[in-house]
Amino acid sequence: MRSGASARAPIDLSRAAIILFFLSGMTGLVYEVLWTRRLGLVFGHTVVAVSTVLACFMAGLGLGSWMGGKRADEAASAGDTKFLRIYGALEMAIGVWALLSIPLLNLVESGYLKLAHSNVGGFPLYLASLLGAMVVLLPPTTAMGATLPVMSRLLVLERRDVGSLLSRLYGFNTLGALFGAGLAGFLLIPHLGSFLSLSLTAALNFGLGITASLLARQEQSQAPKEPKQEEQVQELSDSRRGWLLPLVFALSGVTSMTFQIGWTRGLALSLGSSTYAFTIILVTFLAGLGTGSLFYSKIFRRPTQTLESLAWLQMGIGFFGALSVPLLGLLPLIFIMIIRHINILHSGLYAVLGLDLALAGALLLPPTFLMGLTFPLANHLYSSGLSNLGRSVGEIYGSNTLGCILGSLLAGFVCIPNLGAQLTLQLAAALSLTLALVLFTFGSSQGKRLKLAAPVVLLIAVFMLPAWEPGLMTGGVSFSAAKYLQPGSEERLYERPAYYRDGLSATVTVGLQGEDNLYMKINGKVDASSNKRDLHNMYLTGYLPVLSHPEPKDVALVGLGAGFTAEAVLAVPGIERLDVMELEPEVIEAEKYFSALNGRVAEDPRYHIHEKDGRTYVMGSPRRYDVIINQPSNPWLAGIGNLFTLDYYEHCSDRLKKGGVMCQWFNLYAASLEETYLVLNTFYSVFPHGSVWMSSYGDLILLGSNEPLELDRKRLREAWEKSEAMRGHFFTIDLFEPDVIYGQYLFPREKIVGINPIERKNTDDRPLLEFTAPFNLYKPSEMADIIGTLFRLAEPHPVAEAVQAESPYTLLHGHINIFRTEGLPKEVLDAQTSESALLHARLAMLLEPGARTEPVRSRLNLALQLDPNDSLALTFAAFLELEQGNFPIAEVLAERALVDPPPGARNKLVEGLVAARLQQGKLDQAQPVLEDYLKAHGESYKAHFLMGQLMFKRKKFEEAKTHLSRAVELNIASPESYWGLAQANLELGRLEESENALLQVLSLTPYDVRAHFHLGLLRMKMGKSAEARESFQQVLELEPGNAEARTLVSTLPKSFW
After folding, report:
1. I need a surface site. Which of 103, 642, 850, 908 has the fewest CB within 10 A?
2. pLDDT digits (tens, 9 = 90+) for 677-723
3. pTM reported for the whole predicted model
4. Domains of the chain, start order
5. Alpha-carbon Rg for the chain in angstroms
6. Residues 794 and 827: beta-carbon distance below 8 Å
């Protein structure tokens, strides 16, 4: 019997095998990234689709480890110890199948689309997708999984070396995976593309297989002998070995995947959602696993180990996992403090990614290091001898893989969407601590009480951790860091949103900024709001393509957002069906906050929402559409670039009816000129006809078609005249006449194609945009230069001459919508003719954006001097005086404007008139106007709110409550309606209902001092002294000089807690 180093495989062979296994780990992760991306293009990037692909991949690894271990043991029993030869064959098989996967994936996509176009959907289509993924993934991943037990049989020649040698194998393989993840995410895909990357990786597998076959000639031919009897230490009884360790290691797999998914969601909110950020998170996780495994022999030096060692590891994982929860909650602040002291923003993306890597490492490396130690330790405990080493390694690895599959499904489908990321992490930590508790019960009796008490105490502590601040977590500090460089600027991050949910694929929040700007954030980035600029983009993204089609009936919209684009589409006469695709269920839920503002679009029978990946739905839809509208988020976000590729546009072109129109919205604020050309070139390489428009400063709308395309002036006006909603929308976004829209036209397709210096295209194989766009977040903005370049190419719309002849200033209004007053000639600004009264009224609202100051009033007065009956000037003046509290003047101006109101302005003028009269106590004059308005607009929350106010002033509190209750049903995001409801309930003596309404006010406007104060008074009246004290203390935090609140606090008893 040989001992020491002589009992191992020859040192050169051992090192060669380790190098092979490192490279094998690298190729495995490259394949996982490439195959997941490729199948995601077919099945979508929903959690269901991604989890299915991941489950297939991991199932193959688990199956391969079990089969490979069994086969390796059988070979050893038969006297065949040429394990390198077996390993080489496995690597060759992986390489062969990798090359075959290219045509196989194309076949899977073709089959999927044929089924989808044949009206096969739901579970049958999902089952077909699953089978397709399994056909492609199971063979190569099974071969990958078999390599570990085969390599184990090669290197481990004595049982006492099981832990140390497996730790090296697993550690270097995992570090190879780390290298593969980084290589794929940073270099291979953006620079070589998926096809070439996969081909080169397959070539590397062939090289590994050939090298292993050559090395097999040096491999020892004799079978290793069993160790001496004295080395056969039984750390664990056979009965426990048979079930306990596989079960524990399976549950350990559940916790590790749950941690990974929870950490990824939490870190994405702080580090951003770019493809690079996700790669960094994965690399950090793998780094911890790999280094932990490599350090096994340094930490566990004894030849024998016990279950208590595994218990201490599980307790450490639980402890550091729990510690990561509050640290994650503080990570946005930590990020801000670091960039204030070391301003790396000017150094570019790589500097920021370096900071991201450091922060992720500080958070993840301690627990993942301990996770890395568990695999070799579990194998050391589970293995009973060399004769069944392959099987034991395969069973342990397989059980862990099974746990990982279960953990990914539970975390992704159950925990995150129902409990949120924070509680998911807490549950993972609790499970690790529970495993430690169970393992300690099977350990030695020495100090057992203390050992059992430690995880119990930590378990209690886990569920006492402070909750994350929603505003802080969704502040978008990574991509808007420049906003927080000044001390104190982070205070705005503590504003609590009204709605905060961790969904299947993103964290969604809704909040109220100021009095009337309702916004929706996805992973910390505002993707929709009710401010005028966003409305301009969303409305025109709906109107321009639909109005450019002569008779649109069926429309597809990729991306729901707040529902304003969908509302615009359905406002056009003749639309019969609108299919809306939204990936994240929580966005669909959050849209309800905007229902009073988007015309309750979700209740329209023509509106059909599909909780699916937009790309996949359009590709596989059995329908063909007159119009397809693509309004994704910014392409620097991971996965969004797939909606800007040549392949996707070709699929859209295929799903368009003859003469159909394709629309693409593209934002310039985080784009370079080169990327702008890239998007334009890619889009117009597919569509031979089209035009480019600018909906607002920095936002492009691309229209494309396979047939000649034109926004017909007659059709535009007919639609505008027939649709009251369309007139209202146009008025809201300052298109006071339909022809104004032509002022936002840039140029036809031919103009950009003729001068475009960028010949490259954004494709599925090489998605350049997704990998280049994140760099622009940390560079000086090129938006002004891009817009300047585009405007040098601009030319008048074909109908511009006719429009200009009829109304000299109409096209200027379109220019103003983009540039505000910038760039207008002085003679235009100073013009004082009756024809320019409209222009002066328009300019009045732009001189002081966000404020109604004397310059605005002066410009309006000038407009009214030029034309005393100019309805637009009268309307704006009425709104101005209403905001300033000059109610008698506002009433007169509103009455005059209503004689011949601007198109689309009547409803707002009526609401303003009624509000002015209510404020003056003119109830008898306000009521008939309001009753007529309510009859015509019974579903208007504003009408019910005003009637509730009127009834309250008449002391008809029951009727007031009825109308105000209806107002909050129609608009759940109206603090003024909840406030009125609270007052009505208070007068009726319904104190609990009044309290609930005030709490709703504070959920929307958490810094409303008045609401906090009245809530305190109400709670005093209800006898809730402790809660009342909390309300008054909140008042003092917001307004320290409030003497009345300070006095009331001093009279109330302190809470025991």
Report:
1. 850
2. 999 999 999 999 999 999 988 899 999 999 999 999 999 999 999 99
3. 0.91
4. 1-223 (1.20.1250.20), 241-484 (1.20.1250), 522-805 (3.40.50.150)
5. 33
6. no
